[in-house]
Structure formats: C-alpha cells, structure tokens
Amino acid sequence: MKNIMTFTFALLLSAGLQAQNTNVTDVTKKTVTTTKDSDGTKQVVKEQNIKAKQNIELENPDSKALNKDMKTSPVEMVSTTTVTNPDGTTRTVSTDRSSAYQFDGKNYMLSLDPSGYIVTDVDNAQIGLLRATTSNSYIFRGKNSISVGYFDVDGNLVLDTYDDTSDKVTTRTFVRMQR
C-alpha cells in the first residue's frame, strides 16, 4: 500500500513539472443581432473565436546560463466564426467578410445572413445577396443582374457581370473601407 501511494505521488509530481513550450491566446467575441419585421423578432448570434499559438524557442538552448533569451518565432493565427440562425441552424465561416465597402462613390455594407451574405446600402435597403460556391467564388444576385464574384488579396469584392446585349463582361470592384 505504501508503494502504491509513493508511486501515485511521484506520478502526480512529475505531471505538474512538465514545461510549457507554447504560448496560446484564445479570445471569443459574441455578437447578437436582433431584427424586427412583420414576422416578429429574430436573433442571429455570431461567435468569433480567435486563437493565437506561438512556439517558445530559446536563442542559445545549449548554453549553461540560468536565464536564457527567447527567440522570436512565428505566430499561428486561427479564426473561426460560427453563426447561429433564428431557426436554430448553425454554420461555420472560415473568413468573415462582413465589412463596409465603397463603389462609385457610394457606401455599401456586407453582412452575414443565414445562407451567405446580404448587401445593403446606407439606407439599409437590400441591394443583393451573395452566396458561396465550391470554387472559392461567390454568386451575386442583384435586382437586375446575376454576377460572379470573388475577394482579391486586399479584401475587395470584385464582381464580373455578363451583359447579354453587348456580349461583354464588366468588372466592378467594391473597395473595402478601413475601420
């Protein structure tokens, strides 16, 4: 019995002495959007989880010095956004593109909705819907047109629209506004 207690104590002591070799920061931001319309009140819950992980590395790990300097190492950022719709369904968005955009001197807002994104103007009037495809692009359905869109490296929304009468493709770039 004495050997079992000694073994258990040694096991617990060794588990507590393990060195931490990573810095991890985990932040969760929860946003609840409530809308009222003729059907009643609806809530959309958006939960964004940002996790930063950095390995701890020493400048000179083989030195005999007691206090050693840390070497800067890259930080791995992982961000996931979970949206809970009013009907209780949940979807995960890898990159949330919700932001303010500007095109032709007018401001627009891109915000998450149950199936993708909704595009509104400054008066909160719906301009169109943006739906993701499997090829990392989007289909934009406006009042008078259907376009194919994508986000460029700067985060701008680029829409390509085919005009049947002129047999040409026009490109519109909605520039993402800085916060």
Plain-language structure description:
By secondary structure, the protein is mainly β. The protein contains one helix and 14 strands, in the order H-E-E-E-E-E-E-E-E-E-E-E-E-E-E. The strands form three sheets. An eight-stranded antiparallel β-barrel has the order 7-8-9-10-11-12-13-14. Strands 1-2-5-6 form a four-stranded antiparallel sheet, with no helix packed on it.
Q: Topology, pairings included?
A:
Elements (H helix, E strand, L loop, with lengths): L1 H15 L5 E16 L2 E16 L1 E2 L11 E2 L3 E10 L5 E4 L5 E5 L2 E8 L2 E6 L4 E7 L5 E5 L3 E6 L5 E7 L4 E9 L3
Antiparallel strand pairs: 1-2, 2-5, 3-4, 5-6, 7-8, 7-14, 8-9, 9-10, 10-11, 11-12, 12-13, 13-14
Content of β-strand: over 45%
Give the termini distance in whole angstroms.
66 Å
Number of strands: 14
The arrangement of helices and strands along the chain is: HEEEEEEEEEEEEEE
Number of helices: 1
Question: Spans of 5+ residues with little confidence (pLDDT < 50)?
Answer: none
The largest sheet, given as strand count, sense and whether it forms a barrel, is: 8 strands, antiparallel, barrel
Q: Taking all residues together, what is the mean pLDDT?
A: 82
Fraction of residues in helix: under 10%
Principal-axes shape call: elongated
Strand order in the sheet with the most strands: 7-8-9-10-11-12-13-14
Radius of gyration: 25 Å
Backbone structural class: mainly beta
Q: What kind of oligomer do you see? A: single chain
